[in-house]
Amino acid sequence: MDTLEELNRRGFVEESIDPTLDLFAEIEKLKKEKNAIILAHYYQEPDIQDVADYIGDSLGLSQEAARTEADVIVFAGVHFMAETAKILSPEKKVLLPDLKAGCSLADSCPPHLFKKFKEKYPDHLVITYVNCTAELKAMSDIVCTSTNAVQIVESLPKEQKIIFGPDKNLGAWVAKKTGRDLVLWNGACMVHEIFSREKITKLKERHPHAKFIAHPECEEAVLQMADYIGSTTGLLNYSIKSEAKEFIIATESGIIHQMEKANPTKTFIPAPPNNNCACNDCPYMKRNTLEKLYLCLKNGSPEVTVPEHIIREARKPIERMLEISASLGL
Ligand code: 13P
Ligand code: SF4
């Protein structure tokens, strides 16, 4: 039977918070007390982004996790991101405000099935998108993110055969950009797969001067319409550099918070999905709340752990990605 301590460690003990507490001030105090750093992905709710020490895309967050001198990393993102931080900094305590903050794309590639898939292509090198489990990374030769996927494929000899997983949309985009024939795993993200080409076309007609910008996890039919395709950091930078005043954004809506902060006179419109949902929220990213972040910092739980043998194997392909990225100045 699980002890109370074990349940607490895994974040199963619900705790109420004094409603008069100033959570922003409490979090600042706890960060100092525990020598903790908060790393947040752009898809987190605005309050979380505002208390974070570093906000970034998957590549930036991995780089920051590898270089931080904090004792505790509070990872405001999803499970695979916190696992990556733990693999790069195994001596540190890595906390995730809600352990159920998973990822539909990571779930679309169960390691036992990927192992069989990989066995069918014994002479292929395996590149996996960082949005996958630690177990999958341990089966890979190089990890990549949406910022560096094209450059990582291009860094390999032309004759090198490659398996790319788990995202088929990112894989197809990389194959098109590099002219390489990649063997793709059939996985996808539930948020990026549902943008509606028809509704975007109508929205563009109503906003003829708006730039349409998209994350490469979107389907090819949507990417074909884009003025710019890039990672979350790429999209944010484009919104800053572009002279346009209006943008239609085909990715998770959390990024709009930083776009609006950086460009107070510009307008950002979330791209419409196929369903009737008005927003493009990732249900996993949005499991984290400021309250859960405060509690996890206060209690030192829930903690993300990775078995030692997986850390050993998964570290090599992640470090290879970081080395290639550093050599390219990414
Ligand atoms: P980025 O690395 O571009 O931030 O993407 C992360 C992600 O989860 C996209 O769905
Ligand atoms: Fe995973 Fe998609 Fe959410 Fe990104 S937006 S964390 S790929 S489910």
Characterization of this structure:
This protein is an alpha/beta fold and 330 residues long. 43% of the residues lie in helices and 14% in strands. The chain starts with a helix and ends with a helix. The longest helix is centred in the last third of the chain and has 20 residues, at 308-327. The model has no long low-confidence stretch (mean pLDDT 95). 45% of the residues are buried. The protein has helices at residues 4-9, 23-34, 46-51, 58-67, 79-88, 104-107, 111-119, 134-138, 149-154, 168-178, 197-206, 220-223, 232-241, 255-262, 290-299, 308-327; strands spanning 36-41, 54-56, 72-76, 93-95, 125-129, 142-144, 162-165, 183-184, 211-214, 228-229, 246-250, 267-270. It folds into three domains: 4-102 and 284-306, NadA-like (Rossmann fold), CATH 3.40.50; 105-188 and 312-327, Rossmann fold (3-Layer(aba) Sandwich), CATH 3.40.50; 197-270, NadA-like (Rossmann fold, 3-Layer(aba) Sandwich), CATH 3.40.50.10800. A four-stranded parallel β-sheet has the order 2-1-3-4, sandwiched between helices.
Question: What order do the helices and strands come in, and which of them pair?
Answer:
Layout: H1 4-9, H2 23-34, E1 36-41, H3 46-51, E2 54-56, H4 58-67, E3 72-76, H5 79-88, E4 93-95, H6 104-107, H7 111-119, E5 125-129, H8 134-138, E6 142-144, H9 149-154, E7 162-165, H10 168-178, E8 183-184, H11 197-206, E9 211-214, H12 220-223, E10 228-229, H13 232-241, E11 246-250, H14 255-262, E12 267-270, H15 290-299, H16 308-327
Parallel strand pairs: 1-2, 1-3, 3-4, 5-6, 5-7, 7-8, 9-10, 9-11, 11-12
The chain binds 1,3-dihydroxyacetonephosphate (13P) and iron/sulfur cluster.
Cofactor: [4Fe-4S] cluster
Organism: Pedobacter cryoconitis
Protein name: Quinolinate synthase
